[in-house]
């Protein structure tokens, strides 16, 4: 009876090819908890859905292994069996060691995780999930030995179908590893590079693996590149060569760990600094990054199509002058109005620990076409009040460290009264949410009457 009822449902009258595509599009929906696999949901609805799902090999191509998983990885083996022998695979491995305060131990231990990553790669190979089938690869770990074994696998294995690679290493000096240096590093892609590779994200990967001595750049034709340097920084000739080999980059994210001092010996002279023309670059993000480092990078890059720039700095180095950073975006001749260096820039976010209001106003005069503006509102509550006339096209405001909603409401009111077409406001309250929720309910209600408001707390949860 129930089966006949299910067959008559309109969704089940769709051709299997369309229903299969619906399953594929719902695989990464935000409402599905991370610990629940989409495949287990659709196969449990009814017989028809189960039949369609089992006949859709591409629904089973994401192979995930977590540190909490127990061997022999039965669900991963099931996915590999149902994906077929030839379908490209998306491999995701997260192996992290966690400190247990009760026992004062790291679990799983670094040694166990190193053995786990080796057995994981053996498991994949035994189930015909060889690297030649990998379409994307994601590794996340805080154990250097896990990263080292993975790099060795990449160096010695062909990956002709690889389109995306992410190696994320969180350096935690508390973790008791005996060997953190595997020896003189060789290039990551020692003898090969996938011609299909378009997305690369490397966090904490030692620079020599990325900028090793090779006759030609390892990475070419990327459209998205993210680099975060936790160890020795590359010199500008190395970084310039990598960027020059990827003229089609659309998104570029560069970060330097805040606990690193900028090596002035690596700075290029103005005469010999490499110039890189990135005509396709649309979005540039830089995190922490000493201002001198940012200035040198911006001095190298010619990006006439840049539309989005995000800069996140730290209060570690008080010698840095944020005004120097904003001056990199403006051309000004004495006695004339400032002009934009990036005339198409429309989305700008800047979160320094100190901000000169006069310099910010100079910047906004040069960029009246901004539609998205982000700033740290905590210590600079008067910024929005004085810049309403300088942002005539603003539609989206992003605010971090907001601890006084009355001032935010006042600023929004001033902007709306000035004719600014502000529609959306996103507020990152950090650790202040519990206080604000109880003390400023009326302010939140008043702001929501003016704009579409999204409040995000320290955990990323929306309110």
TrEMBL record:
It holds the Pfam family F-box-like. It comes from the Eukaryota. Residues 12-63 form the F-box domain. This is F-box domain-containing protein. The lineage of its organism: Eukaryota, Fungi, Dikarya, Basidiomycota, Agaricomycotina.
């Amino acid at each position: 009876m129930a089966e006949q009822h299910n067959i008559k449902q309109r969704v089940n009258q769709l051709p299997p090819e369309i229903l299969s595509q619906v399953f594929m599009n719902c695989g990464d929906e935000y409402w599905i908890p991370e610990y629940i696999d989409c495949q287990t949901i659709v196969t449990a609805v009814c017989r028809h859905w189960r039949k369609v799902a089992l006949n859709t090999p591409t629904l089973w191509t994401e192979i995930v292994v977590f540190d909490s998983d127990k061997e022999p990885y039965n669900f991963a083996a099931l996915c590999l069996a149902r994906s077929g022998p030839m379908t490209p695979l998306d491999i995701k491995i997260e192996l992290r060691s966690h400190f247990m305060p009760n026992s004062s131990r790291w679990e799983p231990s670094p040694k166990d995780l190193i053995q786990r990553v080796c057995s994981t790669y053996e498991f994949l190979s035994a189930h015909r999930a060889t690297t030649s089938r990998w379409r994307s690869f994601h590794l996340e770990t805080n154990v250097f030995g896990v990263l080292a074994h993975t790099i060795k696998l990449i160096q010695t294995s062909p990956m002709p179908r690889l389109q995306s690679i992410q190696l994320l290493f969180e350096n935690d000096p508390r973790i008791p590893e005996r060997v953190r240096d595997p020896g003189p590093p060789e290039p990551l892609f020692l003898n090969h590079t996938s011609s299909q590779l378009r997305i690369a994200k490397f966090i904490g990967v030692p620079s020599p693996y990325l900028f090793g001595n090779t006759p030609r750049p390892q990475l070419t034709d990327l459209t998205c590149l993210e680099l975060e340097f936790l160890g020795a920084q590359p010199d500008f000739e190395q970084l310039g060569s990598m960027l020059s080999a990827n003229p089609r980059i659309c998104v570029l994210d560069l970060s330097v760990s805040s606990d690193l001092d900028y090596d002035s010996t690596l700075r290029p002279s103005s005469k010999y600094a490499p110039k890189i023309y990135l005509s396709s670059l649309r979005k540039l993000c830089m995190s922490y990054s000493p201002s001198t480092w940012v200035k040198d990078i911006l001095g190298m890059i010619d990006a006439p199509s840049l539309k989005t720039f995000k800069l996140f700095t730290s209060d570690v180095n008080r010698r840095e002058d944020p005004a120097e950073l904003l001056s990199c975006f403006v051309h000004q001749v004495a006695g004339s109005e400032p002009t934009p260096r990036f005339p198409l820039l429309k989305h700008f976010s800047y979160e320094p620990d100190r901000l000169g209001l006069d310099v910010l106003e100079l910047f906004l005069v040069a960029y009246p076409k901004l539609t998205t503006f982000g700033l740290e509102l905590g210590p600079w509550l008067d910024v929005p009040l004085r810049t309403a006339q300088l942002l005539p096209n603003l539609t989206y405001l992003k605010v971090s460290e907001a601890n006084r909603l009355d001032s935010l409401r006042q600023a929004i009111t001033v902007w709306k009264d000035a004719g600014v077409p502000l529609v959306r406001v996103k507020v990152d309250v950090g650790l202040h949410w519990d206080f604000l929720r109880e003390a400023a309910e009326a302010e939140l209600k008043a702001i929501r009457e003016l704009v579409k408001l999204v409040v995000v707390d320290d955990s990323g949860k929306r309110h």
